């Protein structure tokens, strides 16, 4: 054998070994819940590999209802929607069965909202909830009189559970907290819009205005890229409470890249002491991060970005790391990170007693299984405004809240949803044809070469990433009315972008064409109707710019679509007036 042949043989052996090693890694690894899932709850399995249930009615219960789909699950299940609208609950909606995905992105028309009672997740695991709205409201509470307990007053409660992720969910009009999260392992709340908890004293057993955001304890928790708006405090609150030394994990909670808007007493809070039974938490470490969040309040207010609540004393089991937050007390990243933190009813924490400062850490305190893709507070602000909440079809509630943030329109917390008009009507549309009822519409199966008469192909895993065909559909280019937003890789030779986004007057559309092409750029509504044509001409290779005026357009989300020689790119743009 010649030297060159020996080299080739040796190189082939190295490549083969590398491929075997790579395949082995893929075989052993578990994919995250969906592309873009991050934080502690990123590995929630949901309904992967299970059956499919179609929601066909907006009724509270019975065959085809959301409740029946959740309660009748005997194994892993993905719940898809053949209708849109508001589901009026007659009682708390409990999720106690594991391995469930609620895929709100499949709803035709304007999407799904649930109201009048809360969604409670308890003693379960591996739950994925995406692209729905949970707007509780005060109707049921006022009809039944002042409550004697707090169960069911949150918009969502998560208790004693594991591997939970909420993604692109819009929540509002709770009668206690928007989220109550107690003693869970691995939870992520990401890209959600949380706003307008209700403050009528008649809605809470304490008889006080309890318009609070999020109360969190005894959990490994990531809250990232969310918008929280129009609340009194707890956006979020981290507490060293409710932990038990038998739970088997330390309490690690992080708030990263969130927008906190129009808070009355404080944007966020943490408690420095254990409220009840500290002996039960012996050996448990409590570690809290507040990183790169953007705080906005009215200029006349003195509410701090973060409160350290010291009235319950102090525990040496607690450490807190604060960095990168922007707000009234810390306006840029050249300033001391702790300028954002004040003792409740006290001075800035840099002037606090040594026992308070002993809990402060200038270094990160823990790592996360799937770290959040963190950016500066200023950069995150733009992305959260554009993408937080149930953003495939933003309803008038979310549009109003986003507009208030962008235009800095402040108002006191709500006492009732009726003050802002209550629940908007959500229009439905015909369900997509799904002959074999496997959750994947016929057009998609045809496009991908699957068998639309074989429901079992939903659980095939065609790639090395571990996702099933059904998950590839749910995670893919889904939008409404056949228009799909294409995710353009960095090395893709066509490019379509616009700035600013959102916009309230004009936006610049920038696009790149790599070779001579017939180019069409048009604007569509979310129902698929063409609104206007911006470009229709032959282009040579190059980068181009065109302006879009919002003067004659209504506020809302639109689809900008570029078609060049049968290659298509599209993106959502948001107009706020």
Protein model, in words:
The protein has 577 residues and is α/β, with parallel strands linked by helices. Among the domains are: 51-285 and 365-420, Pectate Lyase C-like (3 Solenoid), CATH 2.160.20; 493-575, Sandwich (Immunoglobulin-like), CATH 2.60.40. Helix content is 13%, strand content 32%. The chain is built from 8 helices and 33 strands. It has an 18-stranded parallel beta sheet that branches. Strands 3-6-9-12-14-16-19-22 form an 8-stranded parallel beta sheet. The protein is globular, with a radius of gyration of 25 Å. The N and C termini lie far apart (76 Å).
Summarize the structure.
With 577 residues, the chain is of the alpha/beta class. 13% of the residues lie in helices and 32% in strands.
For the record, what CATH class of the domain at 51-285 and 365-420 applies? Answer: Mainly Beta
- Derived from helix and strand composition plus strand pairing, the structural class reads alpha/beta
Instruction: Kindly report the average pLDDT value.
Output: 90
Number of helices: 8
Question: Can you tell me the overall shape?
Answer: globular
Provide key terms for this protein.
577 residues, alpha/beta, Pectate Lyase C-like, Immunoglobulin-like, 18-stranded parallel β-sheet, eight-stranded parallel β-sheet, 8 helices, globular
Which helices and strands occur, and which strands form pairs?
Elements: H1 3-28, E1 51-55, H2 66-71, E2 77-81, E3 85-88, E4 93-95, E5 100-103, E6 112-115, E7 119-122, E8 125-130, E9 133-135, H3 139-144, E10 156-159, E11 162-167, E12 170-172, E13 177-190, E14 193-195, E15 212-224, E16 227-231, E17 237-239, E18 251-256, E19 259-263, E20 268-271, E21 286-291, E22 294-296, E23 306-309, E24 318-323, E25 341-343, H4 354-357, E26 360-361, H5 377-387, H6 396-406, H7 442-448, H8 469-474, E27 495-499, E28 506-513, E29 517-525, E30 530-539, E31 542-549, E32 556-564, E33 567-575
Parallel strand pairs: 1-2, 2-5, 3-6, 4-7, 5-8, 6-9, 7-10, 8-11, 9-12, 10-13, 11-13, 12-14, 13-15, 14-16, 15-17, 15-18, 16-19, 17-20, 18-21, 19-22, 20-23, 21-24, 23-25, 24-26
Antiparallel strand pairs: 27-28, 28-31, 29-30, 29-32, 32-33
């Amino acid at each position: 054998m010649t030297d060159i042949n020996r080299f080739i043989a040796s190189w082939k052996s190295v490549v083969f070994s590398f491929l075997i090693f790579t395949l082995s890694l893929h075989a052993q690894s578990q994919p995250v819940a969906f592309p873009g899932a991050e934080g502690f709850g990123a590995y929630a399995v949901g309904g992967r590999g299970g059956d499919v249930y179609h929601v066909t009615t907006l009724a509270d219960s019975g065959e085809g209802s959301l409740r029946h789909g959740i309660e009748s699950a005997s194994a892993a299940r993905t719940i898809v929607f053949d209708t849109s609208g508001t589901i009026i609950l007659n009682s708390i909606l409990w999720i106690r069965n594991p391995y469930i995905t609620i895929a709100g992105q499949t709803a035709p028309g304007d999407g799904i909202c649930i109201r009048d009672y809360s969604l409670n997740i308890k003693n379960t695991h591996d739950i994925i909830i995406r692209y729905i709205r949970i707007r509780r409201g005060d109707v049921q509470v006022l009809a039944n009189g002042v409550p004697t307990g707090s169960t069911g007053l949150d918009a969502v409660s998560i208790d004693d559970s594991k591997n939970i992720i909420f993604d692109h969910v819009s929540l509002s009009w709770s009668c206690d907290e928007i989220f109550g999260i107690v003693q869970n392992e691995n939870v992520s709340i990401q890209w959600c819009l949380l706003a307008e908890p209700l403050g009528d004293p008649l809605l809470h057993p304490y008889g006080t205005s309890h318009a609070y955001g999020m109360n969190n304890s005894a959990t490994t928790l990531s809250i990232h890229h969310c918008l929280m708006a129009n609340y009194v405090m707890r956006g979020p609150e981290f507490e060293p409470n409710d932990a038990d030394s038998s739970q088997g994990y330390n309490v690690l909670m992080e708030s990263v890249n969130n927008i906190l808007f129009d808070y009355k007493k404080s944007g966020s809070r943490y408690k420095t002491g254990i409220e009840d039974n500290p002996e039960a938490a012996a050996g448990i470490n409590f570690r809290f991060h507040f990183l790169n969040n953007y705080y906005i309040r009215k200029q006349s207010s003195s509410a701090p970005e973060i409160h350290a609540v010291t009235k319950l004393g102090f525990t040496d089991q607690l450490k807190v790391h604060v960095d990168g937050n922007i707000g009234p007390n810390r306006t840029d990243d050249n300033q001391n990170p702790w300028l954002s933190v004040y003792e409740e009813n006290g001075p800035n924490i840099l002037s606090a007693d040594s026992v308070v400062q002993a809990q402060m850490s200038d270094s990160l305190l823990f790592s996360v299984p799937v770290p959040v893709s963190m950016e500066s507070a200023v950069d995150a602000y733009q992305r959260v405004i554009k993408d937080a909440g149930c953003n495939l079809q933003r309803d008038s509630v979310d549009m109003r809240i986003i507009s208030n943030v962008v235009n800095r329109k402040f108002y006191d917390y709500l006492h009732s949803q009726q003050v802002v008009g209550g629940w908007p009507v959500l229009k439905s549309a015909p369900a997509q044809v799904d002959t074999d009822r496997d959750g994947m519409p016929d057009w998609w199966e045809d496009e991908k070469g699957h068998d639309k008469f074989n429901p079992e192909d939903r659980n095939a895993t065609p790639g090395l990433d571990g996702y099933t065909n059904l998950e590839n559909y749910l995670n893919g280019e889904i939008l409404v009315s056949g228009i799909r937003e294409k995710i353009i890789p960095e090395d893709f030779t066509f490019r379509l972008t616009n700035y600013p986004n959102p916009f309230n007057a004009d936006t610049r559309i920038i696009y790149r064409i790599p070779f001579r092409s017939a180019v069409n750029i048009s604007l569509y509504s979310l129902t698929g109707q063409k609104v206007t044509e911006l470009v229709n001409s032959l282009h040579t290779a190059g980068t181009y710019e065109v302006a879009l005026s919002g003067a004659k357009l209504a506020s809302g989300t639109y689809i900008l679509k570029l078609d060049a020689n049968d290659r298509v790119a599209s993106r959502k743009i948001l107009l706020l007036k």
